[in-house]
């Protein structure tokens, strides 16, 4: 029998569609098993940088300057984490998605992997979505392989719901099979709504949504989008949905309606599943929104809905940990996407390696 591959210590760096900052986390893995989950941290973006980052979504604006600034912020986050972890073998670098159009075989994550490698003196693996999209896959979600490794000992069927700017789910079947896709908007629409109406970056703790009233007509209009009837695998760009139909609503009513939209979109995914999960565990920033979590529990009943901390995971670190895990899989030529998770034609490897020198 072949000996298992030697474990590697890796850090992962993630800048999500919510544009709130950089998550950095460390794992020890052989590319199959999670042998250790180490420390993690978040480097929040300043409001001025968030505005600059927002300005290049879609590919316009001062792109080169923002890309370099983004990369150097990742250097800062990685160095802060390395001061806690000690030496590591590889860095998994997601960058920041500014455009995702898999139907056009295009996905664009900014961030200079070569600069990051030079600054850190470590090998860096980036461009983890590109091969999948080039082959005709959705290039998203990328985290299901890590969800499956984390959930190896949990009862199935199980759904892992990640609510960042966009929401995505991984369903792990009784036999270990994976089905994954974006369910719809996560926090992005309500974040943008609060920014435009009040200058606030988000609806903290869902307080404004809790004070508002859901407009059922507007909600029905949002749910009429053809995306929800399309079979998975499927994925979204951050800006695929618009709140234009809510322009006449008061601030808190709009926040309530958009929060209900996120929850209702998850429920609309149920007909696409081979078996309804009995348990949903939620990661990402959305799990901290009690108004959203209550709406999810109402729409997904009788299944249980709880934050991933209930099973001992760190809901702030899961995505960053996943990119550390995927970097190791990439180095070892192991698949990181699958037909059931992205619609790729076959299980696919991916990623591009940058050396330190």
Topology:
Blueprint: E1 8-15, E2 21-29, E3 34-44, H1 47-55, H2 63-85, E4 90-93, E5 96-101, E6 106-110, H3 113-120, E7 124-126, H4 130-134, H5 144-150, E8 158-163, E9 166-172, E10 178-185, H6 188-198, H7 207-211, H8 216-223, H9 251-268, E11 279-283, H10 290-300, E12 304-307, H11 318-331, H12 339-342, E13 352-354
Helix pairs in contact: 2-3, 6-9, 8-9, 9-10
Describe this structure in words.
Helix content is 34%, strand content 22%. The chain has 357 residues and is α/β, with parallel strands linked by helices. The chain has a six-stranded mixed sheet with strand order 3-2-1-4-7-13, sandwiched between helices. Helix 6 packs antiparallel against helix 9. The longest helix has 23 residues, at 63-85. It starts with 7 loop residues before the first strand and ends with a strand.
Search tags:
single chain, 357 residues, alpha/beta, six-stranded mixed sheet, five-stranded mixed sheet, 12 helices, 13 strands, 34% helix, globular
Number of helices: 12
Q: Specify the biggest β-sheet.
A: 6 strands, mixed
Assign the structural class, choosing from mainly alpha, mainly beta, alpha/beta, alpha+beta, or little secondary structure: alpha/beta
Q: Secondary-structure element sequence?
A: EEEHHEEEHEHHEEEHHHHEHEHHE
What gyration radius follows from the Cα positions, in whole Å? 19 Å
How far apart the termini lie comes to 37 Å
Which word captures the global form?
A: globular
- How much helicity do the residues have? 25-40%
What is the strand content?
A: 15-25%
Q: Could you give the order of strands across the largest sheet?
A: 3-2-1-4-7-13
Mean pLDDT, as a whole number?
95
